[in-house]
Amino acid sequence: MDRNIRKYLTHLGLFVVTFLSTTLSGSYFIRGKMWGYTEYSWQDFLEGMHYSVPFLLILTVHEFGHYFTARYHKIKTTLPFYIPLPPFPMLIGTMGAIIRIKQAVQSKMIHFDIGLSGPLAGFIVAIGLLYYGYSNLPPAEYIYDIHPEYKEYGENYREHFYDNDTVMSVAVGKNLTILFFERYVADPERIPDVNEFLHYPYLFAGFLALFFTALNLLPIGQLDGGHVLYGLLGSRWHSIVATTFFLGLLFYAGLGYVTPLQSYDQLLWSVPLYIAFLYFALRGLRKGTQTTLMYALIIFTAQFLLALVKPEIEGFQGWLLFGLLIGRLLGVYHPKSPIEEPLDLKRQILGWLTLIIFIISFSPAPLIIN
After folding, report:
1. What angle do CA 256, 262, 263 make, to 5 degrees?
2. Sequence ranges of the domains in the chain
3. The whole model's pTM is what?
4. What is the C-alpha end-to-end distance of the chain, expressed in Å?
5. What is the pLDDT averaged over residues 344-367?
6. What single DSSP character describes residue 195?
7. At 264, is the pLDDT very low, low, confident or very high (cuts 50, 70, 90)?
């Protein structure tokens, strides 16, 4: 088989598998139907496409924004590789998609253009999807079709099922964009409860698209946000901002993870393990052993003392894993480009606009499991 045909089949195959996995996940989110776990029909699969199609559309637009910008600058790159996840309960069906640039990028401006184009394109489509979703919300009774047990309690079902912790709930942490649509676009009587958000496929797909946008726009290393920040501020200020943000992310993520309220026996093993975790994550700062250990001890001590004063404050521990990935794999800093020409005014405006998009798309705690 021709090498190019085999390459295209690989991309197509990954897309098809990702489409199937996200559609099956969509069926689970909407009505709790999961192939292989519950009774499952063709109608359930079609309903799952209300989640998978818009979600994959936004991911595809994002990645092809990078792709076409790279090709415009004559940079060799691959087509998107879609990354499927097994369609298990509570998995979203994919880890997103990536393209691989096949040659060194010599210019700061080209780094900037490629980094900016994907999130900007994907965000525009996500806004359109969320507008459609919030302007076409089903009536409040829609939730009774999915949870017939709620009907007995009417609007008070939240108090019975969630406020009393009688069931496990998964709530979304709303960002500024979601709050805007709820206030200015949606019918207030039809806005879903945060614990039922997953049953609204267009809203949930849009929310996940914003989450992936914010994740890519973190102003660190060679993430899209790192490229944009490097283009706007240069290498020195990128290092300062990225280091500060990275330390702040680890500090917030670990709040409430190890606290004085835990038993002595638990603290005996959790404290050294957690400090070791922080140390390995902070190795991404490329400091010496003593300096890295000092940073780890300072972060732990500050978190521990804050938990003593304000034990109710908790971070989102999911960011700890991402902090480790940044520190050990993705890197905190952005390498200098051989050509560091200044950006024109149009690019500067788009760059600051993209960083604003990061702020309004970011959720400190994206998913809250109670």
Report:
1. 165
2. 1-103, 236-340
3. 0.91
4. 52
5. 94
6. G
7. confident
